Amino acid sequence: MTETGSILPYRPCVGVMLVNSQDLIFVGERVDTPGAWQMPQGGIDKGEEPRNAALRELEEEIGVSAGDIEIISQTADWVTYDLPPHLLGKAWGGKYAGQKQLWFKMRLLADDAVINLDTKHPEFGRWKWSSPGTVLDEIVDFKRSVYQQIVRDIY
C-alpha cells in the first residue's frame, strides 16, 4: 500500500537531471501548468530499458539527442512519490497511485541551441538553467521530496 493508502501500483518512469558546464540544472515550465517547473521525465515503455527510456524522453521533451550528452550517474534504486488526493484517479487514466522513477544525471556537451521545446507533443513552454536550491523551491509540492533526494544522491 502507498503512503496515501492506495492499492494502485506505481507507474514505472525515468527522470533526467540535465546539467550544463556550470553544473546548473535544466528545468522547463509545463505548458499545462504555468508556474510548474520540472526536469524532463516520462514513462518507461513495455520492454524498454530505463537508460533508453531516459534518452528517448530527453529527445521527445527537449530535442536533445544521445550524441549531445554524456550520462554521468543514476540513482541506485527507484524513487517513488504518491499523487496528491485531487489527482488520484485522474492522472494516467486512474491506473496508478504515483510514480516510481530511476533518475539519470546527464551533462549537455553541445551548445544550448540544441534544446528545442517545439517538439511533436510539447511539454514545456519555456526553460532555464537553475541552481539546485531554485529547482527545489520551484517544484510542485508533491514532487519536492523526490527532487530533494535526487539532488542529494546524484547532483
Structure description:
The chain has 155 residues and is α+β, with helices and mostly antiparallel strands. It has 3 helices and 8 strands, in the order ββββαββββαα. The strands form 2 sheets. Strands 1, 4, 5, 6 and 7 form a 5-stranded mixed beta sheet that branches. The protein has a 3-stranded antiparallel beta sheet with strand order 3-2-8. Helix 2 runs antiparallel to helix 3. It is globular and about 45 Å long.
List keywords for this structure.
single chain; alpha+beta; five-stranded mixed β-sheet; three-stranded antiparallel β-sheet; 3 helices; 8 strands; 32% strand
Order of helices and strands: EEEEHEEEEHH
**What would you report as the Rg, rounded to the nearest angstrom?**
15 Å
Number of helices: 3
**Global morphology:** globular
**Cα separation of the termini:** 30 Å
Number of strands: 8
Give the mean pLDDT.
93
Structural class: alpha+beta
Biggest beta sheet summary: 5 strands, mixed
As a percent range, the share of helical residues equals: 10-25%
Strand content: 25-35%
Could you list the spans in which at least 5 consecutive residues all have pLDDT below 50?
Answer: none
